[in-house]
């Protein structure tokens, strides 16, 4: 007799993994893939991390290999206080908890605040793995449209007013995943004003803010927060290396206490050795110099991708113009089936992530995400040329050729 497993409501009903399948197809060696969100591995400071790892083993190996506290290594938190100041947020080590990457921070925050049926308000589209987390806790997810200045604050207020059980707003204000768009300073202040008026929390997810390669810095939403309602998340994944699995949460001290309790039951604490290594790396090397190198490479790759898009895409196709981060968002007007377009692209040996999984509800057809951090400039030119041909094969030379447009 085969066993029928009695899963909890948190477990997805279907075993389908559409994004995993896309990444698998995109991973074939002939395909130029703009699908994943991978940082450039040639930029990982391997030699420096190797050196400080040896030093940690030599100087404090027994301590680094021991159990530790859920809040995380003090020296690492001290370094994060300095990094936060550069992002425009003054904080203290008691306001920081180390996490096993921002993905865990999102999960712990959702676990801490969401009862089934509670509303979470998100940008539309948004980071698909955050949607998966919110769904797993039974959240009612409400998407708010975006434009080039980020979440539409007029619609946000309407969404909050319509959903009195809103627990928090989830926002990725800088170089958003998937759109690459950034929320204006004015909207950040207005988001706080709405959260104050309706007494709701804000989860500010900021993995990309440090990687601004054009335009002026904008202070985080947390900067405008006078009532400790913003839980700010960031990570070493995009500024150092994602395989380290280290992120952090900045929040009011009593919230950090709750987070540490939640974290203890999740994984006791994040990898202590890795925390020692990153703390030592930050003490001995200037991570800001390293971030500047990343910015220079991504700035060039983004410029090459933009130039190629202008050259090879049919006229009428819209795309975002990111000033940092890893992604460009493309909108092909008309009722284009993005999955069919994806299949055509695979025949042309180029890949992207179709927009669908990034939408909490109604999907805007013809949308997809491009990543420029993980391919060389030559691959970007060749890949975008192939993509342009695939789009033209699907919709013709220009968008005006589509019936109804
Ligand atoms: C918006 C957003 N949040 C969170 C994460 C997860 O990051 P981490 O590697 O720190 O878990 C990502 C990763 O791509 C992301 O794009």
TrEMBL record:
Gene3D superfamilies, per database record: Aspartate Aminotransferase, domain 1, Type I PLP-dependent aspartate aminotransferase-like (Major domain)
Cofactor(s) in the UniProt record: pyridoxal 5'-phosphate
GO terms under biological process: alpha-amino acid metabolic process
Keyword list, A-Z: Aminotransferase, Pyridoxal phosphate, Transferase
Domain Aminotransferase class I/classII large: 47-387
InterPro entries attached to this UniProt entry: Aminotransferase_I/II_large, Class-I_PLP-dep_aminotransf, PyrdxlP-dep_Trfase, PyrdxlP-dep_Trfase_major, PyrdxlP-dep_Trfase_small
Entry GO MF terms: pyridoxal phosphate binding; transaminase activity
Pfam assignment, any one: Aminotran_1_2
Subunit structure: Homodimer.
Family: Belongs to the class-I pyridoxal-phosphate-dependent aminotransferase family.
Name of protein: 2-aminoadipate transaminase
Organism: Lentilactobacillus farraginis DSM 18382 = JCM 14108
């Amino acid at each position: 007799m085969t066993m029928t497993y009695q899963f909890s409501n948190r477990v997805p009903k279907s075993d389908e993994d559409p994004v995993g399948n896309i990444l698998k197809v995109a991973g074939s060696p002939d395909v130029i893939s703009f699908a994943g969100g991978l940082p450039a591995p040639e930029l990982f400071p391997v030699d420096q991390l190797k050196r400080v790892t040896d030093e940690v083993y030599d100087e404090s190996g027994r301590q680094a290999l021991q159990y530790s506290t859920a809040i995380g290594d003090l020296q690492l938190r001290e370094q994060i206080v300095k990094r936060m100041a550069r992002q425009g947020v003054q904080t203290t080590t008691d306001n920081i908890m180390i996490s096993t990457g921002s993905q865990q921070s999102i999960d712990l925050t959702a676990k801490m605040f969401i009862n089934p049926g509670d509303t979470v308000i998100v940008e539309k589209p948004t980071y698909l793995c955050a949607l998966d987390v919110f769904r797993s806790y039974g959240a009612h997810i409400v998407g708010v449209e975006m434009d080039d200045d980020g979440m539409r604050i007029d619609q946000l207020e309407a969404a909050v007013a319509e959903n009195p059980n809103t627990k928090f707003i989830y926002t990725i204000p800088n170089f958003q995943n998937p759109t690459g768009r950034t929320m204006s300073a004015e909207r950040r202040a207005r988001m706080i004003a709405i959260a104050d008026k309706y007494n709701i929390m804000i989860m500010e997810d900021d993995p990309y803010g440090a990687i601004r390669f054009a335009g002026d810095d904008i202070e985080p939403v947390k900067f405008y927060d006078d009532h400790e309602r913003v839980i700010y998340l960031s990570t070493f994944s995009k500024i150092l290396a994602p395989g380290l699995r280290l992120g952090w949460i900045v929040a009011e001290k009593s919230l950090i206490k709750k987070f540490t309790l939640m974290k203890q039951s999740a994984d006791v604490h994040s990898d202590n050795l890795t925390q020692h290594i990153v703390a030592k790396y930050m003490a001995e090397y200037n991570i800001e110099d390293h971030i500047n190198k990343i910015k220079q490479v991504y700035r060039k790759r983004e410029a090459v991708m933009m130039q190629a898009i202008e050259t090879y895409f049919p006229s009428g196709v819209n795309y975002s113009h990111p000033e940092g981060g890893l992604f460009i968002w493309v909108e092909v007007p008309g009722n284009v089936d993005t999955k069919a377009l994806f299949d055509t692209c695979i025949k042309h040996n180029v890949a992207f992530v179709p927009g669908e999984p990034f939408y909490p509800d109604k999907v805007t057809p013809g949308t997809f995400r491009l990543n420029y951090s993980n391919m060389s400039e030559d691959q970007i030119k060749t890949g975008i040329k192939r993509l342009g041909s695939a789009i033209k094969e699907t919709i013709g030379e220009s968008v005006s050729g589509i019936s109804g447009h």
